């Protein structure tokens, strides 16, 4: 083994383990969650099933909401291992592990301090939000890889002007666009455009922006390898959507997720848990303001947050690629702490004691009605585990900051596993395999399967479907379709308090806090004959 690799493996072994263990649990035990995971798996499945590897498909039509990179990766997995579900969660996990290495590298470039670099990787790995998102079939962890690769190139270019760094920056921009569209520029451009605020004056000149422009052109060139054939083959509607909708409409006028400008602020401490409760992570910020690397991180993270706050569409997971900035800031601050460190364990120990006590209380109040979709025994096991975890943190008295950081990080791993244990029964209410299999069976029998409201492709991969479902947005549309077709089945999502006669449905299963129902023809008549003031059928929310 090369000498340079050994210390890297030694220093990143614990951060890697913290991510891998929950990743294995997720891959083996939990279903894929609608609507996001099942939607993206459905798109990838339709690409695979229809051999449409340039234009993504959803429910038989071109899917323009996201570029194809994630879907290509899923198809690559199936090419290598056959069509399966067990290996797919390891795709984002691999990127998540690489992200730790990139954070480590960025820290070394900024401060040339292996201890700080290790802290940065360990803090990122043990943020509960990053831990849980690292094995989820979504775009944000993969996008974070391209963002980190781009920022590493910018940092290296600030030290020495070499074509290789601007080429790396361009490829990272292109990869980010192919992952989630031009939004990658929101994370990357602030730190690049404001280079004059953190790059040493003797290394900064007007050529910086010329080289940056070259990188953007390289990124566009990378994207064109897909964009040109996709625009030519996807049809006029798809062409307009990918050339205009991805660049302007979805970023500035996102009607689906409009939030106030301050919406992200209360979410930031939650996403960073447990580290906001760790005083050394913040105590040195003021005196580090003159550090160029620290200043760069504030510009990188602060600029991204400001731009995202100004954009109309906001989702919590949009901040996942920003989390590395906080881990780097915290690591640099932690390294400044001197003296006795054991006292800093108390707030985090208190967090786990509070969470455990809260869960135990919720499981007892009104005989556990607050947690009616959970298994109360699982909740109490998880709660007891959290209390024990808090007590252990109180009893341990680490002598060094490195030991304390390890202790807090391992506690995050334990907390994450306990969350998975406590929510196991509830999570099974998200499993769409049974109803997806029922859809496949009815289609095989020659039935048209109708879906009330927007269909997000959530059954396609779960049931390995090859036919589209018929989307009907209103009761009038359902009534009209039923009048003209004989062999039909209708899927709706009803309150779990609604009693449905067995003769009225082909299939029924619990789903989230409702029940997913596949109605028979007689059942459709019953459904349509309900009180006229009943709201339109509920549909799964679109959380893109």
TrEMBL record:
It is a multi-pass membrane protein. Its main location: membrane. It comes from Geomonas diazotrophica. Residues 65-226 form the Glycosyltransferase RgtA/B/C/D-like domain. Pfam families: PMT_2. This is Glycosyltransferase family 39 protein. GO terms for molecular function: glycosyltransferase activity. The keyword Glycosyltransferase applies. It is an enzyme of class 2 (transferase). It comes from the Bacteria. The chain crosses the membrane at residues 12-33, 86-104, 116-133, 139-158, 165-188, 208-232, 261-278, 293-311, 347-365, 377-396, 402-421. Its EC number is 2.4.-.-. InterPro entries: LipidA_mod_glycosyltrf_83, RgtA/B/C-like. The keyword Cell membrane applies. Keywords: Cell membrane, Glycosyltransferase, Membrane, Transferase, Transmembrane, Transmembrane helix. It is found in: Cell membrane. The lineage of its organism: Bacteria, Pseudomonadati, Thermodesulfobacteriota, Desulfuromonadia, Geobacterales.
